[in-house]
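Slide 14.
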Amino acid sequence: MVFIFSHVDPSLDIIPASFRPSSCQFAVRRISFRVSCQKKSSEFETPYRTIGTVSISYSDLKDKRRDLSPMIEEGFGPNGLGIISVSEVPGFSDLRQNLLNLSPRIASLPNEVRSQLEDPESRYNFGWSHGKEKLESGKPDTYKGSFYANPVLDVPTTDASLIQRYPHYCRPNIWPINDLPELESAFKALGRLILDVGLLLAYHCDHYGIVDILKFLFPSFCL
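Slide 15: predicted structure.
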């Protein structure tokens, strides 16, 4: 999980293959794209096609008896954006704001303190990172600072071979325990909530996949 300090975007979208506050909700940002096709003769132009982000309420997501397959397919299927927003998540707005309030404080720590929070062996995927990532031009991105951490496990593994092979995943967390001790609890609280919501969504994705496979294997199958 990464916390980027320079730009505050209150949306949170859940995207597969990884992990605006209004009444405590995730992602009310609407994402769309347009596709047009036109003959060279300019005889006609097809209408723009707009696709919106699929949104599922937290209460529906938490109900494991509810069939969310149509929404899962709309969001993650071949014609979807690959994004599903979850709204009305209890506690999200407060936890998010609590963590964001710490952003200027960590960015304002003395240089010697922030340098101690850097982890070059993980390619700066843990702890503090500023000016380490490069833009397309090859120039260092100095317009933002980021803080990376695993919100669930401080020490993902003690297996030296795994740490060496996957340093960007398996290195231990680095927290400013003496200079900003509240960062750890705030980061973990929000990160755990995001993970829990993702797991709920994963449950419904599994259900959708199982039913789809059964329908393929047994055409007469129905729930």
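Speaker note: Confidence is low (pLDDT under 50) at residues 4-13, 15-39.
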